[in-house]
Amino acid sequence: MAGRQKEKVIPDEVHQNQILRELYLKELRTQKLYTQYHVNPLRKVHTITRKPMSWHDNLEEPADARFLNLIHHAALGPRKKYTETQTESQEIGWDSEPLVNPERDDRRLNHFRVYNDITLYKAKMWSLGEDDRHK
């Protein structure tokens, strides 16, 4: 038994064609034709500055209206972009209009500091260093 060697089977043309067909179909399944290319976001890009005196770098190009609209829309705040909140953290402060009209003339809500003769006198005394505030 130890002296036996396995005989190598030579496939005939039909079996060889079937093997090549399966290999070809497997390659077609795994290959993908790329027609759109983009920059790999995981790779660092080294930018090279332009030459200031180069004539082709200093040509005036027309502004792309679609790109400018996209940039201006991205710079807007979330309340101008969306009608409703997009995240739960935006719910805090989304409706920031005051509930009561902030009229400055209404004395019920605004208690401004009023200076009379005695309050002006005492404020001047405290600024000079008198220390009897708690008496």
Describe this structure in words.
The structure is a single chain. The protein is mainly α and 135 residues long. Helix content is 33%, strand content 0%. It contains 4 helices and no strands. It has helices spanning 13-30, 65-75, 78-81, 117-128.
Global morphology: elongated
Percent of sequence in beta strands: under 5%
Radius of gyration: 40 Å
**Uncertain residue segments:** none
Q: Assign the structural class, choosing from mainly alpha, mainly beta, alpha/beta, alpha+beta, or little secondary structure.
A: mainly alpha
Helix content: 25-40%
Which series of helices and strands comes N to C? HHHH
Discrete helix count: 4
Largest sheet: none
How many β-strand runs? 0
For the record, give the distance between the C-alpha atoms at the N and C termini, rounded to a whole number.
117 Å
